[in-house]
Amino acid sequence: MDLRKIRKLIEIFNHTNLTEIEIHEGEESIRLSRATSTLPGSPQQQVVHVPMPDTQSVSEIHVDDDEVEDEHTISVLSPMVGTFFSSPSPTDDAFVKVGDSVTEGQPLCLIEAMKIFNQIEAEHSGTVLKILKDNGDPVEYGEPLFILSE
Question: For residues 47 and 117, is the Cβ–Cβ distance under 8 A?
């Protein structure tokens, strides 16, 4: 099975409510499954601090023109594939809102990957101009999550 087909299958799978799919093509097969999600704040929750990717290491970043304010903005990129959460639990307030000032190291969101909640922190101080994801949205590696002003 060619890599482009596998990537397309993963993309389609991420945009559905399916929990499992298995495809056979000749002697090759691929099986994708997602565990039932654990809500943030549940007893099984683990928070892992993950360093943000170096912006130079991301070769392709797709940002719409209307998402970029000017050269004095910073995109906060996802360091992994997973599910975006704006707060530590469904009943808590979001880590940040548009207009909030943030400092380096301040938590911005959680990304759940393989039932582990990874806290994403600001690498730079600034003001939150845009939040590009909603609770429960799937995110890809290197995908912009926030736009901050310097």
Answer: yes
The domain locations on the chain are 3-33, 47-149
What is the rounded distance in angstroms from the CA atom of residue 110 to the CA atom of residue 105? 14
Amino acid identity of 132? L
Cβ atoms of 49 and 117 closer than 8 Å: no
Write out pLDDT tens, residues 76-109.
999 999 999 999 888 899 999 999 999 999 999 9
Q: Is the pTM of this model over 0.70?
A: no
CATH 2.40.50.100 assigned to domain 47-149? The reply is yes
Strand partners, 139: 82
Residues in the chain: 150
How far is the C-alpha of 50 from the C-alpha of 14, rounded, in Å? 22
Q: What is the pLDDT of residues 40-81, one digit of tens each?
A: 555 555 555 555 555 444 444 444 545 444 678 889 999 999
DSSP 21-36: EEEEETTEEEEEE-PP
Backbone angles phi, psi at 94, to 5 degrees: -65, 150
Q: Take residue 11 and report the two structure tokens written for it.
A: 């993309």
Residues pairing with 120 in the sheet: 109
